[in-house]
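Can you make up a polypeptide sequence alongside its tokenized fold?
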Amino acid sequence: MKTIIASTIALAVSSFLGAPVAYAGQDSDITIRTEHYPRPPYSGATYYIYERNGAVICTKLKVCNKYDNCNVTYKLGSYKDQEDIETGEPYGTTEAVVIPTSKQVKHVCLTRFKLNDR
């Protein structure tokens, strides 16, 4: 009963603050969020940031030109290209969402560095 009440309170507070929810026993959930940066001329960089317990465990960088030709790199831990650091704040972001354990094998960044829960 206490777990249900605690989970309900956590959900209510999280909804109010707009933060991802972590239930009892799920503190090792892996989440993913994105940040978008412009790359002149007519291209962009998207960072896929994987986190566990609030720490970045893996970063996927996808840089695409205006013809949708893309280069993808994977880095263990936190990574940001110097060009994007100089740009400053990203021009677009998404909220962190939990990746279900059954879907983690589809994420190359997690499987390449053996970070998935399976």
Summary: Residues 26-112 form one domain. The first helix runs from residue 2 to 17.
